[in-house]
Amino acid sequence: MQVVVAGDGESGNPFTPKGYLIRYWKKQISNDLPKPWFLLNKASPLNAAQYATYTKLVADQNALTTHLHTFCSSANLMCAPDLSPSLEKHSGEIHFATYSDKNFTNYGTNEPGIGVNTFKNYSDGENIPVNSFRRYGRGSPRDNKFDNYAPDGNVIDQSFNSYSTSTAGGSGQFTNYAANTNVPNLHFTSYSDQGTGGEQKFTTYSQQGNAGDQYFKSYGKNGNGANGEFVSYGNDTNVLGSTFTNYGQTANGGDQKFTSYGFNGNVPENHFTNYGVGGNGPSETFTSYRDQSNVGDDTFTTYVKDANGGEANFTNYGQSFNEGTDVFTTYGKGGNDPHINFKTYGVNNTFKDYVKDTATFSNYHNKTSQVLASLTEVNGGKKVNNRWVEPGKFFREKMLKSGTIMPMPDIKDKMPKRSFLPRVIAAKLPFSTSKIAELKKIFHAGDDSQVEKMIGDALSECERAPSAGETKQCVNSAEDMIDFATSVLGRNVVVRTTENTKGSNGNIMIGSVKGINGGKVTKSVSCHQTLYPYLLYYCHSVPKVRVYEADILDPNSKAKINHGVAICHVDTSSWGPTHGAFVALGSGPGKIEVIVAGKRENSGDSVNPFTPKAYSIRYWNKRISNKLPKPWFLLNKASPLNAAQFAKYSKLATGDQKSLSNEIQSFCSSANLLCFPDISTSLDKHGQDTQFSSYMSKNFTNYGNKLPGGFDSFKIYAENDNLPVNSFRQYSRGGAGHDDRFSTYAPNGNVIDQSFNTYGTGLAAFGVGQFKIYGPNVNVPNLRFTTYSTEGVGRKQSFMSYSKDTNSGSQSFTSYARNANGAANDFTSYANNSNVIGSTFTNYGESENGGGNMFNSYGSNANVPKNTFKSYGLSGNAPFETFINYRDKSNVGEDNFVSYVDDPNSGRAHFQNYGQSFGEGSDGFSKYGSKITDAQTIGFETYGVNSTFNEYGKSIPTFTDYKNKTINQISSFLMGKNNKWMVEPGKFFREKMLKIGTIMPMPDIQDKMPKRSFLPRVIASKLPFSTSKIGNLKKIFHAGNDSQMGKMIDDALIECERSPSAGETKRCVSSIEDMIDFSTSVLGQNIIVRTTENIKGSKGDILIGSVKGINGGKVTKSVSCHQSLFPYLVYYCHSVPKVRVYEADILDPSSKAKINHGVAICHVDTSTWGVNHGAFMALGSGPGKIEVCHWIFENDMTWTIAD
Description:
The protein is α/β, with parallel strands linked by helices. Helix content is about 15%, strand content about 25%. The strands form 8 sheets. The chain has an 11-stranded parallel beta sheet, with no helix packed on it. An 11-stranded parallel beta sheet has the order 30-31-33-35-37-39-41-43-45-47-49, with no helix packed on it. α1 runs parallel beside α10. InterPro entries: BURP_dom, PG-associated_BURP.
């Protein structure tokens, strides 16, 4: 089955490419089957702000190419890096560890001394590492060692030009060079030419590579006594091509050894052109060369021609069932006493102009073309030729039955990790072979580079005419794939893939089998990845196929290890007679049906072994003793840094942390952290209408100062941004008739920090400032209106749906509209449905003349709003204030009116339905209207409870349905049985509710924290993490004083350093490894971690389905981990005594369909909890009298001993 990881589903930002894709799926696909997250998670990872930025840049492709590397990093593309400037010359020993993408031009050239250069773990795990060794060590007697050079890379492009040319002595060792790479492209041009006694060793070079080309041009030409050893070169590779041109030409006495060269390869092609021509006494040894390979072609052209006394030994050359073709042209021709020995040499060879008198053939097999042809047929019904084909790649339909044991090919996805581009961006990029030059420019692909070849190959295949009966399209967005599939199949479709890679390269047993469409011939669309900078699929539909799903079992234990998808091609009549299926299975076109095993794309354990995620997986395997399925919802929170980035930032964190701070923006982007952006320089002044659409993180200092007129529109500004920082400092100061509109400003952001300093100040005349849907759905907004519209004339401010649905945060209105004349302010639906929002109005409207302020539905349905009105309307003339449905239905808010409307002249204040809620909180009116005139009217209609009037002008207020209760009355009132003070329904519940058939409310369990990843432990451990070092942390993360980032860091560290509660064991963890260590220290190594599956059922009624008690429902030990707000992912993990843990299916109460699978914890002993704990307010009772249960929220988790 396809498991949906918590947080990867539909709860993401709706304005991202992924959010759009999910909506597109719902729109285009007519059924309600589970969504294919293995496809939808390939959507572009761009956030909404990045999406807007790059959509704009792609319109001007020159602009996009200048931002290519940030685009590639943000959009998860595969791009060629730009080489750094050349390193300087050197004369000492140098070690290059965990480097990448460097330019070694003229490095060490002509330098004396026997220095040693070591390249260890160089370009590890890189995509398209480009390394240029041009004239490296030229004329220098040095030793160079390349250990683990560029392992696990994709599309490596390495150039060794004039490497060690004209050198004397020294050695070059290439050990584990380019191992496990995809499409290596390596050029050795003029390598060791004219060298004297240089020894070169290629050990396990390009082992297990896929495709690619190796060029050895003028290698060792005119060399003296140079030895070259190729040991395990290109072993286990697929279609590796090596070209040796002018190799060892006119060399003197060099020995070349090819040991286990191309061993076990598929279709290796090797070309030896002018190899050893005119050489003196060269000795060449080919031992186990291309042994057990499939159909490679070797060309030896003018090999050892005119050589003197050369010796060539071919031992066990080409020993395989499918030899391929070897051509020896003018081989050994004109040689003086050459000795050429062939021992157990294979078949199908052509010797042209070969010197036969000096050759020894021992057990040499040369077969006729008729014999070779017979090899493609079934050999007596027993042995079948497997030319080109690995076992299990093709098989017959009759194999798909329960109990069959058969080989499975390697179904692992070896392509580099990439994502789709958003359709709107992909559509604007050139996509044809006629525009390759434009594509090369955009993606920085050099001439004759592997990227150029990759782009050309992909586009050529996409433009190829379809085969007979085939319908095809290359798709570069998930929307295009959906459109193509629905155009062929209709809208009631489903997409399938093989579940994982288990069983690959071994024998498997078939379990239960299901034929799609009842096993009848059906239409289908198959999509296969293509190597390209962004994710590109070749999708096609061919006639007459049957599709199957099958459980795949371990043939020994019979345990299910995989679930596979297979396609059976019923009509093969249009296939070529040399198709690999017929070579593997015998027969020919139209005579048999053929099944193709479905490949699985990379996921799970099959990640680069040198990344932080891979380390976390190995650490899990090492520390957790059971073999239960891994918790990918946790492991996927590992740092997304690739191996080279991991090495780079580890080094920066280890050294001077100033170095890390200098690169904080790239670090935050690469490591998926939450960091402050650096504000751009101030925008220029203007005197005209300006539209700010889809902007973010700008500095509007002195913007529009003293300029008349003008209209500024901020539309969808800083949308979906994390920590957008916008400074409106002296904005429109003294401006006349200036209208500003902030529409959907900073929606869906996290930790917004906005500063409106002296905004509209300095006799700003008229104009309108509208804040409409400002900061909705944000987390922790920090908004400051300082001297906003002070001394303004007739300027109207409207705050509509401001900070609606936000979580915590503070709003500061300091000296707002102070000394203003006739300013009217509307706060409509301000901070509705928010949690713990704090607003401070200091000197608001002080000495204001004739302003009318309306607070309409302010703080409605809020939890714990805290509003302070200090010196509000002090000495104002005829201010008119209306509070309608102010803080209505809120829970336990506190309002302080200090010196409110003190000394007003003819002012009126209306409080209608003020604080009408069940748990009101405390309101303090101090010096409220204490010096009012006879004309002032203050009315309270249906005003709530728990209010204190101190020095209140009681002579003329009107109290209608006003309820004032004593402190004792309030205390007993708050302890009422049904009081939901601070508590949303379902947040706490009793254990007896966890039984089948119970209908109960579920709280909002959605994770509203910004998306972040853990840091690798090696980096996190080197960063300061204590309140005593808060200054260092602020410096690293560019957190200013009094910023929300600084407050966030402070709060988290204070909570982490708090002493544990009675019986509690606690620790804050900043890496997966730390979490594993803490959990195993409490529970041992046989443990499991659980989380609630998704957020369905949130904020509504649910029906409880089946329930399972962990540890049989007995009291058990557990560790629960809850997120903290911090720049990187930090969890507060703790263990408390006496809990029971449950899992429960969560059903829709109407349809009874399962919608979620929840994890709940019941605290059996509550005796140490505070009397005012929300659980007791929600459920009644008190400490120690009842047990209390709660759900594990999205992205939180709990650990227990494995059940």
